[in-house]
Specification:
The chain is mainly β. Helix content is 4%, strand content 44%. It is built from 1 helix and 10 strands. It has one helix spanning 43-47; strands spanning 11-12, 24-32, 38-41, 56-61, 67-71, 76-80, 84-89, 97-102, 106-113, 120-123. The protein has a 6-stranded antiparallel beta sheet, with no helix packed on it. It has a 4-stranded antiparallel beta sheet with strand order 3-8-5-6, with no helix packed on it. β5 (67-71) and β6 (76-80) form a beta hairpin. The N and C termini lie far apart (46 Å).
Length: 125
C-alpha cells in the first residue's frame, strides 16, 4: 500500500483524483519590497509528496500595484493588476521554480494547486 502524506502546509481540498494523492493547495504569503524579485522552488514539497504536479495557482493581489509570477522552466509569466485575485492555469515542470515580483511591494498570497482550475479573476473587496 502506498504511503499517504499529509503535511501541515498542504491543505487537502477534498476527494482525491487518485487513491494516493488528493487535490491539494500550498498557500505561500509573500511580503515583497518594491521591484525586488524573490526566487524559490517547490522541490522539497515535490520530494516529500506534499504537492506534486502543479497545474494551477490562486493569487490574491490585494495591493495597489502589479504582481508578477513567472516560471523560468516553462517561460510562463502571469501578471495580475492591482486589487485583483483569481485562479490561473500553469505549465510547470517537476520541482516548480518560480519568481515573484511586485512593482510597489506589499503582501501577496499565492496558492499552488495540483488540480487544473480554469482561468478566472475578480476584484478584491
Amino acid at each position: 500500500m502506498a504511503r499517504q502524506y499529509n503535511p501541515e502546509l498542504a491543505i487537502n481540498l477534498g476527494l482525491p483524483p487518485s487513491p494516493e494523492f488528493g487535490p491539494r493547495i500550498i498557500p505561500i504569503q509573500f511580503v515583497l519590497a518594491a521591484n525586488v524579485p524573490v526566487t524559490d522552488d517547490l522541490s522539497l514539497e515535490d520530494m516529500d509528496y506534499s504537492l506534486t504536479n502543479v497545474q494551477s495557482v490562486w493569487i490574491d493581489n490585494n495591493n495597489a500595484s502589479v504582481f508578477t509570477l513567472s516560471f523560468p522552466q516553462t517561460l510562463q509569466t502571469i501578471r495580475l493588476k492591482a486589487n485583483l485575485q483569481g485562479f490561473f492555469p500553469v505549465m510547470a515542470a517537476k520541482g516548480v521554480q518560480y519568481t515573484v515580483t511586485s512593482v510597489g511591494g506589499g503582501t501577496v498570497t499565492v496558492g499552488f494547486l495540483n488540480v487544473p482550475v480554469p482561468y478566472v479573476n475578480w476584484p478584491t473587496a
